Amino acid sequence: MKLLLCCCLLVISTLADDYAVSTRRFPKNFKWGTASAAYQVEGGWNADGKGENVWDTYTHLYPEKSNYQNGDVTSDHYNKWQEDVDLLAGLGVNTYRFSIAWSRVLPTGFVNSSNPGGIAFYKNLIAALKEKNIEPLVTMHHWDLPTNLENLGGFLNPAIQEWFLDYARFLFETFGDDVKNWVTFNEPKQTCEQGYGIGILAPYIVGPGVKNYQCGHNLLIAHGKAYRMYENEFKGKQGGRVTMVVDSNWFEPASDSADDIGAAETNLLFTYGWFAHPINFGDYPDIMKQRIAYRSKLEGFNKSRLPSFTEKEKEILRGTADFMCVNIYTSSMVSAIPEPEIIPLSPTRDLDIGTNAYQPDDWEATITDWFKVVPWGARKLLNWIDVTYNHPEIIVTENGYHDNGTVIHDLDTRGRYYKLYLSNMQDALYKDGVNLTGYMAWALTDDFEWQYGYSIQLGLYQIDFTDPDRPRTPKDSAGYYRQVVTTRCLVDDDQCTD
Ligand SMILES: *[C@@H]1O[C@H](CO)[C@@H](O)[C@H](O)[C@H]1NC(C)=O
Ligand SMILES: *[C@@H]1O[C@H](CO)[C@@H](O)[C@H](O)[C@H]1NC(C)=O
Ligand SMILES: *[C@@H]1O[C@H](CO)[C@@H](O)[C@H](O)[C@H]1NC(C)=O
Ligand SMILES: *[C@@H]1O[C@H](CO)[C@@H](O)[C@H](O)[C@H]1NC(C)=O
């Protein structure tokens, strides 16, 4: 790692302003794309035999938890997919990351319920993409578990390992001749911490410090089993690759003291490492195992709240990422604090981490409190992944800027965000030697943004959600992204260097 973790903070926090954007072109074979998720864009929530997923069910039951809005229609990609493929072709991208809605192809979640209408939708989409030379990068689970499976315990039931295995086999059989890059799970930390821990994402289960880890454990083993099944049954004939998408902030030590550096590392390991360590090394990071066991005992639990893998499970999991993926949006500063108070039988993941993570007020703000614009953090996070996981191939599978969705002339906000983040990522690639091979902008179009409903937006194309036709209007950033993709360069073509 060529970056120093402990440079002076003042220098870093002003970097964005006087930072010189790279004029170099990205490599010729770089993967450029945009990313989306089924529930956020498709709509057609009960069309053509689709079953309900937890987002359908729980946004209907608890509308107040998602700004009184839902994804019943959203961007209507289910009907407007051909137009969206044309938009992708117009941007010049060579890759499109999207997810398959489990309950659209298997309405009950089980393979004996397969739905021809849902299968046809994805077959048509994939064929249209390939016709335009756009490679699909397909996520199997982007938070939308079939409700039938949730009713059987969802990710808290170890049977999810077999349900997912069957679903994955069905996907490889059905789409695997055309799809060569598979993601099992998207952002499992959000599925488990926000869905089963603090309970702010569907299915809104509250089980902090316990159910979040049980969810993660079952999800990880499900991933490992699906990876091995692909390896054994499909890889030979289909020749594709399988991985997981893990998201993380960069966590910057608040000072160059050993304690703060350690506290920042602890956050990285509890966030990216929670999932990336098991799929690379076969087990959770030591610090997670140690801290959760330690606090569990003092809290009165008779064993660690973090489940442990059997030797067989470790073997299944070790080396189950054919390349690494990361979703990068923002960063945090971290300082060490004294061990947080023990509250009997009342754990949380934050207490398990036991640090002070925060975003300084002088970092550039957006309209939500957790999202500051911190371009240099992207370079550092990529370097950390490179070092920690022994120089893997890395694809940035999400990155983007959110506002309230009304701004069409967004070059100074979204366009600038893309320019500065991509320039820092390119520095990771060229200056630091990180094997970054692709970048997926979030997102092609405006969409349903989970707990925020439609109140925050990240699209390159604006959608008027009050118009039944859901017209797509290019924002200025779409033109900029098209320029970046087609010239492989962040500045005007005549200033680009090889
Ligand atoms: C489908 O499979 C599930 C899980 O194995 C089973 O419980 C269910 O009875 C099956 N349904 C039908 C119609 O065969
Ligand atoms: C240990 O925990 C389990 C699950 O909470 C509980 O059923 C059991 O009684 C506990 N055993 C002891 C010895 O406390
Ligand atoms: C980057 O990863 C790709 C795919 O695994 C590999 O072919 C290539 O050699 C790697 N490049 C570097 C510089 O490590
Ligand atoms: C959305 O944000 C823009 C730019 O910050 C602002 O001018 C506009 O008033 C906002 N609109 C709403 C409805 O909040």
Automatic annotation (TrEMBL):
Q: Where is the signal peptide?
A: 1-16
* GO function term, MF aspect, one: beta-glucosidase activity
One biological process GO term for this chain? carbohydrate metabolic process
InterPro entries listed in its UniProt record = GH (IPR017853), GH_1_N_CS (IPR033132), Glyco_hydro_1 (IPR001360)
Q: Does the keyword field hold Cytoplasm?
A: no
* Keyword Repressor recorded: no
Keywords in UniProt for this one? Glycoprotein, Glycosidase, Hydrolase, Signal
Query: From which domain of life does this come?
Result: Eukaryota
How it assembles, according to the record, is: Homodimer.
Family indicated by similarity: Belongs to the glycosyl hydrolase 1 family.
Q: Which PANTHER family match?
A: GLYCOSYL HYDROLASE (PTHR10353), LP05116P (PTHR10353:SF36)
Q: What is this protein called?
A: Beta-glucosidase
Species annotation: Ceutorhynchus assimilis (cabbage seed weevil)
